[in-house]
Amino acid sequence: MQLESGEFRPGAAEPEPFQPVLIAKEHPVIEALRTLDVNSLTPLEALTKLYEWQRLVTGEPKGRKSRK
C-alpha cells in the first residue's frame, strides 16, 4: 500500500495481520459429553444434565427458568 500511494517510510510499522486461533479451547460441555456414561443415567439424571449444559451454553444464570 505504501508503494501505491507513492509514500515509503522505512521503519513504518505495518499493522499485524489477524491470526485466528487454529486450535480453539474445547467447551466444557463437549468434554463432559465425551466422559459421560449415558447408559448409567436414570431418565431424571439425563434431563438434569441436559438442563445444566443448556444453562452453561446459553449463559443463563442458575436457578432462572426460561419459559417459552
Give the SSE layout.
Elements: H1 28-35, H2 43-58
Question: Which features would summarize this protein structure in a list?
Answer:
mainly alpha
Care to describe what's here?
With 68 residues, this protein is mainly α. It has a domain at 28-58. It is 35% helix and 0% strand. It has helices at 28-35, 43-58. The radius of gyration is 24 Å and the shape is elongated. The N and C termini lie far apart (53 Å). The model has no long low-confidence stretch (mean pLDDT 81).
* Helical coverage, percent range: 25-40%
Average pLDDT over all residues: 81
> Biggest sheet, open or closed, and with what strands and sense?
none
Radius of gyration: 24 Å
The total count of strands amounts to: 0
Separation, N- and C-terminal Cα atoms: 53 Å
* H/E series: HH
Proportion of beta-strand residues: under 5%
Low-confidence stretches: none
The number of helical runs is: 2
Structural class: mainly alpha
Shape: elongated
Provide a quick synopsis of the model.
With 68 residues, the protein is mainly alpha-helical. The chain has helices at residues 28-35, 43-58.
